[in-house]
Amino acid sequence: MLEIKNLHVKLEEEDKQILKGVNLTVEAGKVHAIMGPNGSGKSTLSYVLSGRDGYEVTDGGATLEGEDLLEMEPEERAAAGLFLAFQYPVEIPGVGNMTFLRTALNAQRKARGEEEVSAGEFLKLVREKAKTLKIDAEMLKRPVNVGFSGGEKKRNEILQMAVLEPRMCVLDETDSGLDVDAMKLVSDGVNALRDAGRSFLVITHYQRLLDHIKPDVVHIMADGRIVKTGGPELALEVEKNGYADILAEMA
Ligand code: ADP
Ligand code: MG
Ligand code: MG
């Protein structure tokens, strides 16, 4: 599904190398987790996958279902089935949540040469998804993320994901700032979307999210590289001993 090979990324503005050769293959239907100390480059990896400005790929690359991801515009990436939920979801004053969702869904359909959803169909779809995520109608009418609590923003991103039905979902620290109940809701939302044709890359600082979203593979990232890969037990090891042991073992 997603293949990242020897990815090297530096900041455009500064001579600072952040990713120093990331190799990662996420197979269809699998959930991979990336853990790692602060500043190791986890968010940078998700930004580069999304096509955010300010980064320069100096070597290596990334493909989504065999297509060169880094050559695509951000909208093309979304149409190709990539979805990213960020650590800090953006607020869009003046744009209602429903309007935003419908525009995003129709843009994706158009790029794929599919028909737009009718207003009625869309309303039915969103109401159904919102209900399972315990998002109330009021929140659907408000401007995107404006004045939403941390937990509401995260839930709203899972709603976007549920509506857009991407094939490759990247979640960057979707757990940060969530209380236990909100984390459970978000995890349930993700788990409900798990499917043989859909993959997830879950970036998290803490093991506790992985109690709810059980990963198939866990990677540890440090200083711009994946330094260790294992099963779910690797996350438990980090929880128990921190990163120091793993990093010392690598050195
Ligand atoms: P993580 O998500 O693992 O905590 P980040 O990807 O946010 O790590 O950051 C990796 C490193 O790159 C850090 O040292 C961070 O300070 C640096 N960095 C990222 N973006 C910028 C930027 N725009 N300007 C300066 N430094 C940056
Ligand atoms: Mg960080
Ligand atoms: Mg980060």
Automatic annotation (TrEMBL):
Cross-referenced InterPro entries: AAA+_ATPase, ABC_transporter-like_ATP-bd, ABC_transporter-like_CS, FeS-cluster_ATPase_SufC, P-loop_NTPase
Signal peptide: none
Domain ABC transporter: 2-248
Pfam families xrefs: ABC_tran
Record keywords: ATP-binding, Nucleotide-binding
Coiled-coil portions: none
Family under the similarity heading: Belongs to the ABC transporter superfamily. Ycf16 family.
Name assigned to this protein: Fe-S cluster assembly ATPase SufC
Organism: Albidovulum litorale
Protein encoded by which gene: sufC
